[in-house]
Amino acid sequence: MSPALSRRVLLGGAGALATSFATGIAHARVLPNDMGPLIGAGYRATEPDEKGMWQQMERVEEEVSGSNLLIKEPRLTAYLSSLIGKVGGPAAKDMRIYLARIPEFNAIMFPTGFAVVFSGLLLRMRNEAQLAGVVAHESAHFLRKHQLRQWRDMRRKTDAFSFLMMGAGLAGGAAGIYAGDLVQLAQLGTVLSLLKYNRTLEAEADAMGVRLLADAGYDPMAMSETWEQLIGELDLSAKYRRKKRDRNFSLFETHPAPEARMADLKISAAEVKQPGRTYDAYYSRYQEALATIRPTLLDDQVKLNDPGASQYVIDTLAKDGWDGLLRFQEGEIWRLRNRSGDDVRAAQGYAAAVLYPDAPPNAWRWHGIMLLKQGHRAEARSAFARYLQMAPDAPDAALVRQMMIG
Amino acid sequence: MRRLGIALLASVALSGCVQTRQYADVEFSPPQGNYKLLVMRPDVSVGSVTTGGLVEPRADWTESARAKLLAALRAQQAARGGDVFIMEKRSSLPGVDPEMVAELERLHYAVGSSIALHKYSGDYLPTKRGKGLDWTLGEDAVALGRRTGYDFALFLYAEDSFASSGRVGLQVLGIAGCFVGFCAANIGGGGQFAYASLADLRTGDVVWFNIVSARSQIAGIKMGDIRTDEGAAQLVDRLLDRMKPGRNVQRRQAKIQ
């Protein structure tokens, strides 16, 4: 065995270890002031790798824009576009936004500047500032060319890894050592550093998002509130399922831990606020924009039958005041879970809902059914009468009339 | 289309050669003479294989490969006597809503995925044993045929990739290693993959399906190049020019002879 060659194998191994240590969980906050846009208005791909990516993304956008999952209500889509116009920085006029009917907390930005916002996100936001915060974060991904930088980073690291692997194999082969274990270690190092780069980009998007938000006159604290809400929802959802929220937001996560993000966002928000300027959350404008679609959004969420998450979402929205719709859907959560005692909670929800003038017809229907089950025939009859009065053409009108007689 | 391509590709053993594998409806006879063929917008992508083995799409290569493939397809079909229309966009058909075309493409994606799974990936269905190719696009395809007067619709997918100089360098290193006992003579990199699916617009059935895989396990050795006239013609030839009739048709022909 040649000592020189075996030392090279060891060096290869040490290099791999160093890579994995470099991806440790410690992180430093990205400063909003350092986050200027990397592209201007009307940006088009320039380099070959970026052009290839754009060409593929054009096909993706064609599919997305033609998807039947999209909510195409003109007023709502115009409203979303106006938000991207406010917080989109220099590319405000170039970016597109699509609203998909998916009851999840998510939004995705694609490398060519179009974003897909999930309807579950609209439901969870309490005001326009919170939604604009998410849109600003997604815009930042585009403005800072994150997808391209991510791809280049991955290419560079897999290139380096291939040579390292081949080098270790060659050296090992020459020295008669099996280098497989070291190669695996190097592979782990490569994967870990890829994820780290991803987390750095998310932190960049947060920092820049806060800045775009404050520049547009929104309260930049809205972004950390959003994270607070996400953490609360995940916790309650897990608790109702008698599980712990997945706390492994460390080495193998692409996004930084929500707690860390929330803390960083708070500090950054304070940093970007200018003395003397007023910042607003635009609560009522948001309520108005969402008025027609909110019943559908709530219904989609509650039908996921994730009682912890649904209850959290409803409680969060109710911080700005209860209404008939929220109370009705609160009843629905328990009726759908249907464990022992849940019928009582559901009945309480319906009974509370009908006290509000904006209670939906279905609240009266279910209130009537619950009263009937409890043996309160006369009250049930008047609840059903109210239901039929509000929804005379309901598909189950004949059935309800039958229940009133029987 | 792309993911369907990946599913089909996974079914072809990765060896350094050219492979094709076709299936046909038992009553299929290859179109000849006076037929009208509609070629749905071909999905083409060409990329470069990075040193680390990732495929990086290249817009300029893709564009030239698409143009060459369309030209080769026109020449090949003209030789067979067919009346061919190639859709370059979803809106290329006059009088047909692009959304109708998009719906049919999506439907074919789902049906093609099922063919990939049950004919190529080994999850064979006992209910389809001995039935040749037994899939249909149904009424939507028939409606398109009625609206446009075409007899057949052809769905095409082709990808090609070429090893970058870094990948070739890595390959050279791997072969050099054979002299010291660490042999990585076939790291692979680059290659062609394509599939074609023919639907009969009078019945809506998918009557013929074929895949072509042409790849080398040694990075740097090309098995074809669809960016060139010859390469594109070669792929069209491998993919479409050797259509075999379905089983029942073959048996009847054997009896006559």
Automatic annotation (TrEMBL), chain A:
It comes from Sphingomonas cremea. Binds 1 zinc ion per subunit. Its EC number is 3.4.24.-. Belongs to the peptidase M48 family. GO terms for cellular component: membrane. The lineage of its organism: Bacteria, Pseudomonadati, Pseudomonadota, Alphaproteobacteria, Sphingomonadales. Residues 72-266 form the Peptidase M48 domain. One of its GO terms (biological process) is proteolysis involved in protein catabolic process. It holds the Pfam family Peptidase_M48. The keyword Mitochondrion does not apply. Keywords: Hydrolase, Membrane, Metal-binding, Metalloprotease, Protease, Signal, TPR repeat, Transmembrane, Transmembrane helix, Zinc. Coiled coil: none annotated. It is an enzyme of class 3 (hydrolase). Its cofactor is Zn(2+). CDD domains: M48C_Oma1-like. InterPro entries: Mito/Outer_Membr_Metalloprot, Peptidase_M48, TAT_signal, TPR-like_helical_dom_sf, TPR_rpt. This is M48 family metalloprotease. The chain crosses the membrane at residues 105-123, 160-180.
Automatic annotation (TrEMBL), chain B:
It comes from the Bacteria. This is Lipoprotein. It comes from Sphingomonas cremea.
